[in-house]
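quick one before i forget lol
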Amino acid sequence: MDQIKENFNRYYMSQLNPYFNFDGRLGRRDFWMFVLFNFVISILITLIFNTILRMDLVASSLAGIYSLAILIPSLGVSIRRLHDVGKSGMWILIGLIPLIGIFVLLYFYLQDSQPADNQYGASPVTGGNVTSL
């Protein structure tokens, strides 16, 4: 249980603290752990209020409030992940293209981090200690 709490604080809460942070880089593991915790929280809200307590209106209201509250940090996490693979944060707008856009973003999110520093900062994986050849 302590490990879950530690991971929750490291991968989820640490990304919420800089609420409007769109600068820097975010490694692949940190990104996907944030997505996982976000998904689990959404499922728990739905399960607790919709299925267990039979409060459909409360469940949908809380899910909507949670989605709005997490929107800006989620954009920041996504943009920092794009920075990590050497792409501008503006690439997030490609997700607005139906069907194709989400697959392009998924491809970028699944790529390895650039091992060396790039224009967005030091590598979160190596700490920027790798020199480019």
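fyi The CA atoms of residues 1 and 46 lie 22 Å apart.
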